[in-house]
Amino acid sequence: MTFPQALPSPRTPDSRDAPPLRWAIMGPGWIAEQFVASLQAHTTQVVAAVGSRSLDRAQAFASRHDIATAVGSYDELVALDDVDVVYVATPHPSHLEHAVMSMEAGKHVLVEKPIAISADQARQIAAVAARTGQFCAEALWTLFLPKWDVLRQVLDAGGLGELRSVHTVYGEHFPDGHRIFDPALAGGPLLDLGTYPLAYVTSLLGPARSVAAAGVPDVRGVNGQLGATMLHDGGTMSVVATTLHGWPRNEITIIGSEGVATVEALHNSPGPITITSADRGVTLTYDEPHGDQVGGLHFQAAEAARRIAAGERETPIRLLSASIISLEASDEIRRQVGISFAEAGLDEHG
Ligand SMILES: NC(=O)c1ccc[n+]([C@@H]2O[C@H](COP(=O)([O-])OP(=O)(O)OC[C@H]3O[C@@H](n4cnc5c(N)ncnc54)[C@H](OP(=O)(O)O)[C@@H]3O)[C@@H](O)[C@H]2O)c1
């Protein structure tokens, strides 16, 4: 019996102890607001500059967050001298261009999820990171949360025995007019929401070796919902689903020979994890309070700052190779469901 008697404590360091770097915010949209609020509340990181396609929007964001420098183009932003790392928070079809221009300008990058719209694009980002020697990581913030470190320790110690399967869903409701309905921004739930389930299952079980996917279009012109069953090495499997039609109970269930772990809803945010022995005789809970992005986005920034200050080019929490593996599964799901970015004028290979 390997089922633990108690849960480990998270090893996640205090974000305030990370060396303070100078951050530039590229794309002052919704998530950038949460990211800056999280940094300013929970770290000693310096938000030094913000860049927008519009100087007015950059200045408005800068005055809301007390940021010294606001510029009206991304070219000007990456050329600034007093910046160490760029946080790319533009829509996902632009991540390749914006990550590459930042690294070519000598800046490290933390790129919002998904790091790109296809595995091909992610490979290009990884190649530029290797050539320029800049730090580069996908801001898959959930994997940087203390709760994920607790889960990792339980699994690494064999606490659930041999893993059998992972089941997870991510759905939300979006108002008409949200960018998720825009095909030109690679809309639909797969990349915005499905990125999380795909990251979970591939980081827990490894690459998808086979995929069986199906989906249904939304009347507004993008895919509306889809599901996939995937086989991974060692006789394991995952079942994932994503929808833009509403809020299911967004949990992760991880089934092993000795027990079951449940990452409670909302799985991508701070919150509790419960593990129950296979015979259901013992239940242990890691009681992280439910939180939001502002309470959790800072962990990835602190990790990036620590790695950059140490001269490292990646974080083991989200290697570029792991982002590529997620996107390979995403590419195959899209192929089977018939989601074409080319129809919307997007070049997923360039
Ligand atoms: N980690 C999380 O929890 C989380 C949550 C939400 C979103 N995200 C990710 O963050 C990225 C941005 O999402 P968001 O919800 O913040 O989007 P958003 O509110 O629309 O903001 C995106 C920003 O990018 C800039 N931009 C550059 N090119 C653009 C274009 N062609 N169309 C529209 N905006 C463009 C815009 O700023 P300017 O025009 O002023 O430069 C805009 O404010 C996405 O990749 C998404 O997947 C992550």
From TrEMBL:
UniProt name for this protein: Gfo/Idh/MocA family oxidoreductase
InterPro entries in alphabetical order: Gfo/Idh/MocA-like_OxRdtase_N (IPR000683), Gfo/Idh/MocA_domain (IPR050984), GFO_IDH_MocA-like_dom (IPR055170), NAD(P)-bd_dom_sf (IPR036291)
GO molecular function terms listed in the Swiss-Prot or TrEMBL record: nucleotide binding; oxidoreductase activity
Domain Gfo/Idh/MocA-like oxidoreductase N-terminal: start-end pairs: 21-136
Domain GFO/IDH/MocA-like oxidoreductase: 151-261
Keyword Calcium: no
Similarity comment: family membership: Belongs to the Gfo/Idh/MocA family.
Keywords noted in UniProt: Oxidoreductase
Entries under PANTHER family matching the protein: OXIDOREDUCTASES (PTHR22604), TRANS-1,2-DIHYDROBENZENE-1,2-DIOL DEHYDROGENASE (PTHR22604:SF105)
